[in-house]
Structures are given as C-alpha cells and as structure tokens.
C-alpha cells in the first residue's frame, strides 16, 4: 500500500514506474488483454537491452509473444524484422496474425508458393527462403534488425535441420536473433553455442505449462488417472507423483492373465465362480472404439479433442466409423455455419473436382463436427479443418503426428491410441519428446481451466513406462548439420576455402562434437589405469604371458578369417548359381522369410548396387523376382541364398500374368504347387574345413605348445586377465579413434566435397567457375545431379510437360518402395532423358564413393526416384484431376505437395539454366505455368 511507504520509497517506486512507461515493452503489454508471464517479460527486457534470446518453453505457453515483441521493436526503431517458420502453413498462419495487428501494408509473406509485399518492414518466411537470401546477398537484408526463428528445435531434423544452422552462422552481426524452441533438456548448451556465434545471448527456460495437464488411461468404461496425486499440475510444483496403484493392479492382472475362449469347454476343470469372475473382469476391460471414446468425452465435457493416430488411412477410417455410428456433435445452427464457411473457402474449386476429392463425404463429417487432418489431404481442406476447429465448429479431429508440429490448433483433450508408431523403418515406441509434443496440444490458454491427455488401454500397456514418458518433459537438441554441394560453392564464393572451413567449424554440430570429446578423454584416462591393473594380473613367473596371449589370439583370428573366407566362397558360388536362373525356373529358396518353393519371374539385375543408398543396400549378385507358393511376389536378395541354388523344374509363365493381381498370383501359385510341390530339394553337402589343412594354424599351435607359459598351472587364470586386458586395450583404441574422428569432422567432410567439386570443375582453388555459379542457384537434395544435367544438356529439346516429368525425379521420394513393378514413364524424349539422369547419377555415385562421401552420414546424392514422373507429365499435359489421381494412386494432398516441390525446383532451373542457345529456361517457366493450375493453384494460401 502506497500510504505505508516512506517518502523515499514512494519516490523510488514512482521513478521505477516512469522508467517502465518509457520502455517499448509498456505500450506492447497494453496490446494484450492478458498479463504477460514472468518468462515472457524477462525475454522481452533482454531483447530491449540489445541481447539475443533463446526461449525454451512448452507448447502453448505463449513463447511467440517474444517473437511478436521483436516485431514491435523493429517497427518502433524503423528497422526490419524477418519472422521465420519451418513450414508454410505456420508462415501463412503467422502472416494472417500479424496483418490483423499491423495492417497488410506493413507485413509481407515469402514462401515457396507465395510472394506478398516482400519489401515490407515485417516479412514472414520459411527458413529456407532466408537461407537463400543470405547466400544471394539479397538487397532485402538491408536495414534488417531482428530475425525470429520460430520452432528453432527443427535444427534436429535430419533432412532440413542444416538450414537453421546456416542462417544462424551467416546472419550479419548487427542482426539480433530471437530463437523460440520447445522445452529441450540441453537449452543451456544450445545457448552457449549461440553466445559463441551470435554474441551476448540470454537463455530463458520455462518448464511451467500455462494450463495444468492431467494424464489419464481409458480402459473399458473407466477413466483412470495415471498418477495417484498430481499436485505439480504438469510441471508447476515439485512434489513427486506416484503411479496410480489401481492402474498398476489392472496392468498386472490383464498382462499376466491369458484368457482363451476355448477355456469354456474345460467343464469341471474351471469352477463356475472363476468363470463368473473372469466374465465380470472382461466386461470392464477393453480398448474402447473410436466413436465410443468421443461420446464418452462429449458426455464429460472434454471436447474438443484431437485423437492422434499414426496412420493416414486410420484417420480416414476413424471418421467413417464415427459417421456409421451416427455420431453428431453439432446442432442445426452450427451445421449451417459449417456449410457456409466450407462453401466460401472452397468456392474456387471446380465442381468436377469436388467428387474426385471426396468433398461431399468430407463436408458431411464436418457438419457433424468430425474431421481428419493429415498430410495426404488437400491443403485447402486441412486449412478449413483448422479454422473450424479453432472456431469450435469441429469438435473431434483424428490426426497424424504432423499436426503437432507448430500449427496453432489447441484442444481441451488429446487422445493417443497407441504409444508405438512406424518410423519409416520399423514400429518403435514414441519418445518422451514426441509424447510431450503431442500432449502439449491439450489445454487452451484463456479457455480451459485444465487440459487432459488420454491414452487408450492396450494389452501390454506398462503404466510405469507411460509415467516415464509423461514425466520426462524434455528431449535433447541434436544438430543434424552437414555440408552440401550447394553450401560449399556458396561459401567458397563468399569467403574462400580457408574462411569457409573456419565458419563450418563454428557449427552447433562441431560444438557438440568437441564437447563430447571431453567425456571420452576422461574415459581413456580411466581405461589406462585399468590396463595397468590387468597387466599385473596376467604376469606369469614362467615367461612373457602377453606374448603367449598374442599367439592364442592370432590362432583364433586365423580360424575366424578362414571361416569368413569359406562363407564368402559359398556366397560367390550361390551368386554364380543365381546368374544362371531364367524366367520360369522353379527353385527352392533355402532360408529366410520366404523359404520354400518359388517360381522365378525375373532373374534380377547384374552384380552391383540397385539404388543410391550406399551403406544400406549392397548387393553382390542378382536379385531374382519370384512368386512363392504362398502367392507372394517378392524380390529376393543374396542373403536368402547362403548355398547355391539350381532349377528343380521349368514352368511357362502366362503372358497375361500380372504380379499386382491377386487372382493372377493365386492361379500361378496353384500351378506351381501342382507342378513341383512333390519335389524334395537335395541337401547341400558341407565341404571340408580349410582350417584342417592350413599351415599357419599348424605353426601357431606348435608355438603355443612350445611356449613356457603353456605349462603354467595358473595359465587359464592368467589368460582371463589377458583377455580382459586385450578387450580394454581395444576399447581404449576405439575411444582414441573416436576422439580423432570427432575433431574437425564437419571441416573434413567439407574438404572431401570441395575435392569432388574441384574434380568436376565447379571450383578452382578459391575461384567458383561458371559451373559452380550455376550450382549455387540450385537448392535441393539432388543439387549436383541437377547441375550436371544442365551442363550435359540432358533436358534440351524437351517439352514443358516432359521437363516437368524429369524434374519430378529430383524431388520425389516414394513413401514405400515397390520392387515388383517399374514406374510408368512418358515415352519418347522424356524416357530417354530420365534414363540419362539415372546414368549421370550412377557416375556421381561412384565418384562420391571414391571421395569417401557417404550418404549414410547425410551427405551425397540419393538415386532419383521416377515414381512421380508420369503424374507430373499428365498434369502438365492438362489431363483431368480424376484421371491423374486415379493413375497415380496417390492422395490429393501428396499430389499437390509434390507438384509444388517440382514447381519450386523448376523455378531454380529457370534461373540457373543457360540464357543463350538453350530452351530449358523458357520451358521450365512454361512447365511451372502448366503445373500451377486447378488444385495445385487454388491450394496456395496467402
């Protein structure tokens, strides 16, 4: 109370108030109806003091307020602010927010799709756009005062993360950087790096959620709290949380009891009381169906809800299940409002395309308040779902995890059906970081008193594991930075080779690698102390036991080497036998998942690689395509043939046979079983071991028996100490190699890339050649391949549609590989050009191997994927959407996304192609116009 203050205190308080009113923060705070949180105020004050900031806070905590304050500061100071986001949808959303606040004349948008008011003082853009501007030395950078990097933890992304580090390293020193991140466990480490490369940087970490989060497990009719007493409310307090004992008891009962329906037939062996108890237990515990879950949450006032399902098809199926169940979450008034909004937002879509896009089924679900949200949907459809959800007109969304990546779409409740997802290679448990990201959507600030995360009961669910996911709120930020060809020529052009190398050594990747060396060095010191102890333990009074142990090891190594040579010889024999196979041969696959009778459809390709993923798929022989007796068409590998194989019988393959037709496979497999099902393959006779006649083994055995230590009574005891000594010495040498390997790793990779580019005449010392200047304009995974195609004139004379087909191979990557059927390709010049592209890639791939540039480490050129060439050709040839999607067997959203990526690269090619005596630039622009129509054109936002 002011009357309790002394005059001096009152005067000091008045001075403090006046000082605060004089800051830029005071008028900024008045723009918001709610008060700012302490972490937001701390970050804003640091910004106004001229410091850079790293703000790490949970999803939905309002960290973007700090980014908006940077915008406010820039406008106040008459400077520019660039607001970068990782995805176009986020850029569009932030652009709309800033336009609403500051007006369209002060805000611009730059993404791969749109360029709106790019000279405005505030420009929202994707991070790649800013990277390209930095390398091009764009005039737009003049007067730049602030850069906001939203979702900066994307630098962990192994495909795109390097872009964030490139921007951070190359931004002018005069620019203040605002980094906004999810809560990461090594924020201080990341802050230390920012301090090193950007100067004074304040690290502000907030663990507190703005809305408390309650964790539940839904099993049958009962909703169990995950924790017995959640007094810390999602991170606010410090009390320890115990897993609900009722849930633990349920898990023990359910996961140990193996109920079998056939138990009913056991009669008197199972007492009636036991059966009745099992019936009661089963009636309580089951995994609720999707409509049942939504109805339950609706009844308890826990909608709107997002259900995360790690499958696009399952998201669509969930919507259909809710429709079939008669679920209606909207009243008549809401339904009319939904129809009004949807019709307005989709008015530009041609009527003939609506049926192809599943518009009417989608609209019916929306009117009921239900929707799916995934990357396979048309962007316009996704944006409508987001808008309706935020307005409260869609109350149940079934989404893949991509929704969790930054889109402002909070819910009251988040549901996880399973804690396992497909990561592209296998089904794996979700990580604590992924769990935090997904459940972070629960609880709407200013709307909900609390948020709820609900995990559906599944057989085998471990409450302790779930509690670990829920309790571990952070995940470490790991750099994915790797030099690329385009990066190398741009750096050398701006800074020269030596300075470029030094710049790369300032990357976060190298910073983390150097820090990790400290711990390894300490381990080496401890190991060396252990070696001294082991050396003492193996001392023998009869002679040099280290020498004796070495002889024993040499013997073991020689035996292992001979065994390996024998295995290699058997593989070579097997490969030789595979080369003799012909279509129609009936064989017996000796081992593997597809062991048994099989019919050869195609003998496979000659020895060598089948794709560009070196380090993942080496093949030392043909890979026959076979039909198994179980009706499966599979391409086998050499691993399936550890011993030679020979034809047991011959069969005619009908010309009408279609490997994709289940009926064709069934008929031919039936004929195969009839023809050769009775034949028993001959067992392969094992050959005499090479070790039995080896002179080196005989010599080593003689020396071992003659050694003085061989007669020691404690020989085996000494040998155990010697083996420990050897293992620890080997581990120590590996650690020393790791130290050597982690020092200057990024720079060494850069050196190898520069050497290859010098070989191809893209660089001559510090000079970037004309070829190199062309490469500097090509950004993408296959930048070097695109540049080589331009240099060799591969695309000269192609029509715009044919060029679109060829360029699609530079960007497209199939979600799942299909070995059985080759992709359909346009005929004529396009097919020849695509073949030439693959041949050029093969040459580059061999060159990369020579220069030790390894794709497994995220560097190098993958094989071009021809799977989208026909769709791109058809669309650029003005075919209808119905025809293109039907032949492509691809969701509309995927089709639009790939078309936009092709358009982006075509724009780069138009800029990089020769201006004289070349048709490529002109046809690239025409191809862009041909692709940018219909669904592809009207799905652009901004």
Structural features, described:
The chain contains 34 helices and 24 strands. Residues 230-239, 261-270 and 607-619 have low confidence and may be disordered. Helix 17 (432-439) crosses helix 18, helix 28 (800-811) packs parallel to helix 29 (829-850) and helix 30 runs antiparallel to helix 31. The radius of gyration is 33 Å and the shape is globular. The strands form five sheets. The chain has an eight-stranded mixed β-sheet, sandwiched between helices. The chain is an alpha/beta fold and 942 residues long. The chain is 48% helix and 11% strand.
Sum up the structure in keywords:
7-stranded mixed β-sheet, 34 helices, 8-stranded mixed β-sheet, 48% helix, alpha/beta, 942 residues, single chain
Strand and helix map with partners:
Layout: H1 7-21, H2 25-29, H3 38-48, E1 52-56, H4 64-77, E2 80-85, H5 88-102, E3 107-110, E4 115-116, E5 122-126, H6 127-136, E6 144-149, H7 162-170, E7 176-181, H8 187-198, E8 201-205, E9 213-219, E10 222-225, H9 245-256, H10 272-284, H11 290-299, E11 305-308, H12 312-324, H13 332-345, H14 351-356, H15 359-367, E12 370-373, H16 379-390, E13 396-399, E14 413-416, E15 420-422, E16 427-429, H17 432-439, E17 451-456, H18 463-471, H19 485-504, H20 508-537, H21 545-579, E18 585-589, E19 596-602, E20 625-628, E21 633-635, E22 649-650, H22 662-676, H23 695-706, H24 715-742, H25 745-759, E23 763-764, E24 767-768, H26 770-775, H27 783-791, H28 800-811, H29 829-850, H30 869-876, H31 881-888, H32 892-912, H33 920-931, H34 934-938
Parallel strand pairs: 1-7, 1-8, 2-5, 2-6, 3-5, 6-7, 9-17, 11-13, 11-14, 12-13, 14-17
Antiparallel strand pairs: 3-4, 9-10, 15-16, 18-19, 18-22, 19-20, 20-21, 23-24
């Amino acid at each position: 109370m002011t009357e309790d203050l002394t005059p001096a205190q009152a005067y000091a308080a008045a001075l403090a108030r006046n000082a605060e009113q004089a800051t830029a923060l005071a008028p900024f705070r008045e723009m918001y109806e709610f008060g700012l949180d302490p972490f937001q105020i701390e970050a804003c004050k640091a910004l106004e003091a001229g410091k850079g900031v790293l703000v790490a806070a949970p999803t939905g905590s309002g960290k973007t307020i700090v980014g908006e304050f940077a915008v406010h500061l820039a406008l106040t100071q008459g400077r520019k602010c660039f607001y970068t986001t990782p995805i176009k949808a986020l850029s569009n959303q932030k652009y709309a927010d800033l336009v609403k606040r500051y007006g369209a004349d002060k805000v611009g948008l730059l993404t791969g799709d749109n360029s709106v008011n790019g000279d405005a003082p505030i420009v929202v853009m994707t991070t790649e756009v800013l990277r390209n501007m930095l390398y091009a030395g764009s005039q737009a950078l003049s007067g730049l005062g602030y850069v906001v990097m939203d979702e900066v933890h994307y630098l962990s992304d192994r495909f795109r993360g390097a872009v964030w580090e490139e921007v951070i390293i190359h931004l002018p020193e005069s620019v203040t950087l605002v980094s906004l991140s999810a809560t990461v466990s090594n924020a201080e480490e990341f802050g230390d790096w920012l301090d090193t490369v950007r100067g004074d940087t304040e690290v502000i970490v907030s663990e507190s959620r703005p809305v408390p989060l309650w964790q539940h497990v839904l099993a049958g009719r009962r909703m169990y709290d995950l924790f017995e007493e959640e007094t810390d409310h999602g991170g606010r307090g410090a009390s320890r949380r115990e897993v609900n004992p009722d849930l633990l008891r349920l898990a023990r009962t359910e996961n140990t009891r193996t109920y079998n329906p056939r138990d009913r037939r056991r009669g008197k062996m199972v007492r009636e009381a036991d059966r009745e108890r099992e019936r009661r237990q089963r009636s309580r515990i089951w995994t609720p169906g999707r409509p049942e879950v939504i109805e339950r949450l609706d009844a308890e006032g826990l909608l709107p809800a997002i259900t995360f399902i790690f499958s696009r098809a399952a998201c669509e199926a969930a919507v259909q299940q809710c429709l079939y169940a008669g679920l209606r979450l909207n009243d008549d008034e809401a339904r009319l409002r939904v129809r009004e909004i949807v019709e307005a937002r989709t008015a530009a879509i041609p009527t003939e395309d609506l049926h192809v896009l599943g518009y009417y089924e989608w609209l019916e679900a929306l009117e009921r308040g239900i929707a799916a949200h995934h990357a396979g949907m048309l962007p316009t459809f996704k944006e409508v779902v987001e808008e309706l959800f935020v307005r409260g007109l869609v109350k149940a969304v079934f989404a893949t995890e991509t929704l969790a990546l930054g889109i402002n779409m909070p819910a009251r409740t988040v549901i996880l059906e399973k804690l396992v997802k497909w990561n592209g290679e296998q089904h794996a448990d979700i990580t604590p970081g992924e769990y935090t990201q997904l459940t972070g959507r629960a609880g709407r600030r200013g709307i909900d008193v609390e948020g709820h995360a609900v995990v559906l009961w599944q057989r085998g669910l471990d409450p302790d594991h779930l509690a670990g996911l829920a309790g571990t709120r952070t995940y470490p930020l790991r750099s994915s930075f790797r030099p690329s060809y385009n990066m190398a020529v741009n750096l050398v052009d701006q800074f020269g080779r030596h300075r470029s190398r030094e710049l790369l050594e300032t990357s976060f990747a190298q910073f983390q690698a150097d820090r990790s060396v400290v711990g390894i060095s300490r381990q080496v010191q401890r190991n060396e102390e252990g070696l001294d102890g082991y050396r003492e333990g193996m001392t023998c009074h009869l002679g040099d036991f280290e020498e004796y142990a070495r002889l024993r090891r040499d013997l073991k190594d020689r035996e292992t080497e001979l065994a390996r040579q024998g295995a290699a010889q058997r593989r070579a024999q097997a490969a030789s036998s595979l080369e003799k196979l012909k279509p129609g041969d009936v064989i017996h696959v000796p081992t593997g998942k597809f062991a048994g009778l099989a019919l050869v459809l195609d003998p496979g390709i000659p020895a060598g690689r089948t794709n560009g993923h070196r380090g993942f798929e080496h093949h030392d022989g043909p890979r026959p395509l076979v039909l198994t007796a179980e009706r499966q068409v599979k391409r086998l590998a050499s691993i399936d043939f550890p011993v030679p194989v020979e034809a047991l019988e011959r069969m005619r393959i009908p010309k009408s046979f279609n490997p994709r037709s289940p009926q064709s496979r069934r008929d031919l497999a039936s004929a195969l079983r009839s023809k050769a099902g009775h034949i028993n393959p001959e067992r392969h006779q094992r050959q005499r071991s090479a070790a039995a006649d080896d002179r080196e083994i005989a010599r080593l055995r003689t020396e071992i028996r003659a050694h003085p230590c061989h007669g020691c009574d404690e020989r085996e005891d000494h040998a155990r100490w010697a083996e420990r000594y050897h293992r620890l010495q080997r581990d120590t040498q590996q650690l020393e190699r790791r130290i050597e390997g982690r020092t200057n790793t990024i720079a060494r990779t850069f050196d190898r890339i520069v050497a290859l580019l010098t070989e191809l005449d893209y660089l001559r010392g510090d000079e970037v050649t004309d070829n190199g200047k062309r490469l500097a304009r090509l950004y993408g995974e296959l930048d070097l391949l695109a540049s080589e195609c331009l240099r060799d004139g591969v695309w000269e004379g192609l029509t715009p549609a044919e060029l679109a087909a060829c360029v699609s191979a530079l960007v497209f990557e199939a979600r799942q590989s299909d070995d059985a059927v080759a992709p359909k390709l346009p005929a004529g010049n396009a097919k020849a050009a695509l073949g030439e592209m693959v041949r050029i890639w093969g040459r580059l791939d061999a060159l990369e191997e020579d220069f030790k540039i390894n794709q497994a480490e995220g560097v190098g050129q993958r094989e071009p994927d021809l799977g989208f060439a026909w769709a791109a050709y058809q669309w650029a040839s003005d075919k209808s959407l119905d025809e293109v999607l039907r032949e492509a067997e691809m969701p509309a959203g995927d089709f639009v996304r790939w078309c936009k990526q092709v358009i982006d690269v075509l724009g780069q090619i138009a800029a990089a192609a020769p201006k004289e005596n070349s048709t490529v630039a002109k046809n690239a622009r025409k191809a862009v116009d041909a692709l940018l129509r219909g669904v592809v054109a009207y799905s652009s936002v901004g």
